[in-house]
Write a structure and sequence with these properties.
Blueprint: E1 5-10, H1 32-44, E2 48-54, H2 65-79
Parallel strand pairs: 1-2
Helix pairs in contact: 1-2
Length: about 80
């Protein structure tokens, strides 16, 4: 049994249609809904001790919408996280 775990989220796991702001784009990656569902399941365990979001490149996000989408999904998931 784990005492806890750390979440490392690379933005390039998202589909390139919704996340163009990465250096290595992935066709067929996760949708916003899939990422949201995964984070909710992971965080519901109450054992996550931290999270980092990496690979997002703001220079490649011309209108900021990809970054806003990513921030919104992560914030919403954290808002539903089980209390520690």
């Amino acid at each position: 049994e784990l005492d806890g775990f750390f979440i490392h989220l690379d933005a390039d796991c998202l589909d390139d249609a919704i996340m163009p702001a990465v250096d290595f784009r992935v066709p067929g990656g996760l949708s916003w809904d899939e990422l949201s569902a995964a984070l909710r399941i992971i965080l519901a365990s109450g054992k996550a001790v931290g999270i980092e979001v990496t690979i997002y490149n703001p220079r490649l996000d011309e209108d900021g919408s990809a970054g806003r989408g990513l921030a919104d999904v992560v914030a919403a998931a954290l808002g539903t996280a089980a209390p520690v």
